[in-house]
Specification:
This protein is an alpha/beta fold. The protein is 56% helix and 11% strand. A hairpin with an 8-residue loop joins strand 7 (184-185) and strand 8. The protein is globular. The structure holds Fe4 H S5 and zinc ion (ZN) (2 copies).
């Protein structure tokens, strides 16, 4: 297999572009894609301070690496979600990446800093972990970016992620979600920070190739809560479509963004933003959903704790009276 550009030995074939590249030309392709997305959607400039949400996986670390290579001012933010060993290993990868390169990385520990990790929060709310996780991530990332003076928040969503999300949204006709599914979500006022996805045109395989070629040590396992999740099923279906017809994911996402999403965004309901009465973060209601949810979860957790200690007291009373009875009958 020959490189389409220089006819040297190719290391990767990109069927959807009908191309193959050697190492230097693959990196050139990758950087061009990222730079083109940033410029085309006016995501940020070299004057902006960009906060990259870093999970420890290939996408977020690859994004951070590429932005720095391209000369952008990018720092990292890692959220320790408290999902057992998976979260500990993710944390280690993010910290190691930053330390080895002398980069600025902020970390937030959900359990320590907000009282509950994802599993405890989900249990208390009787919701699936991903719902509690998504809500917490959106809130904390925006808040951290704002409080630390960043102008943009960047995430490592790739083309496969966007295609799977779009498929999920289309299958249920979630119009509000579709209206907001874009490479850029503009900020609003001072406190709602602009969100961008500079890798949205690159596939998972392409981002993995970039990470490997640059010696990035990333966590390769899926979150245990993702196993069996619908998003993996959609990715699998899309992979099969892609094999049968290269370019399917690309066309599905990019044509949606070109032809449909802008119309949906224009006609989407406008919600006026105000400040949450509890935390001051932007919300459309009096109290933001994160504060409401946390309040409900801590009430329930407290209620269960009290019920458990009542049960324990009762069973120790019963044990004590049984022993007293035994002693009396001896
Ligand atoms: S981390 Fe969180 Fe994902 Fe794990 S709990 Fe679900 S949403 S699967 S990106
Ligand atoms: Zn080449
Ligand atoms: Zn709030």
């Amino acid at each position: 297999m020959q490189c389409t550009k220089c006819h040297g030995k190719a290391i990767i074939e990109l069927q959807r572009h009908n191309a193959a590249f050697c190492r230097p030309h693959y990196l050139e392709y990758f950087y061009n894609q990222v730079e083109h997305s940033i410029k085309r959607h006016r995501m940020f400039t070299r004057d902006d301070r960009v906060l990259v949400a870093v999970s420890g996986g290939k996408d977020s670390l690859g994004l951070w690496h590429a932005l720095l290579h391209l000369g952008y001012r990018a720092s990292g933010l890692h959220l320790h979600l408290g999902i057992g060993e998976y979260s500990s290993r993710s944390y280690q990868k993010a910290v190691q990446f930053a330390q080895e390169r002398g980069l600025e990385l902020f970390t937030v520990d959900l359990a320590q800093d907000y009282g509950m990790g994802v599993p405890e929060l989900a249990r208390a709310l009787r919701r699936v972990p991903c719902s509690a996780c998504g809500l917490s991530k959106r809130y904390i990332m925006n808040r951290e970016a704002y409080e630390r003076g960043f102008t943009v928040l960047a995430t490592g969503h790739n083309l496969d992620d966007e295609a799977a999300t779009l498929m999920a949204n289309v299958l249920r006709w979630r119009m509000d979600n579709m209206a907001r599914q874009a490479p850029v979500l503009p900020g609003e006022g001072e406190k709602l920070i602009k969100k961008v996805k500079p890798l949205y045109t690159l596939t998972e395989r392409e981002v993995a190739a970039y990470a490997i070629l640059n010696g990035i040590d990333y966590i390769d396992e899926e979150c245990p809560n993702a196993l069996g999740a619908k998003s993996l099923l959609y990715k699998d279906v899309l992979d099969r479509l892609e094999i049968a017809s290269p370019g399917t994911k690309h066309n599905f996402v990019l044509q949606f963004l070109e032809k449909v999403q802008p119309l949906m965004y224009e006609t989407a309901d406008e919600h006026e933003l105000r400040e949450c009465a509890v935390c001051g973060q932007p919300t459309t209601r009096e109290v933001c959903s994160f504060c409401k949810t946390r309040d409900l979860a801590s009430h329930r957790a407290q209620h269960w704790k009290e019920a458990r200690s009542r049960d324990e007291e009762q069973s120790s009373d019963a044990g004590a009276s049984a022993s007293a009875h035994e002693a009396a009958t001896l």
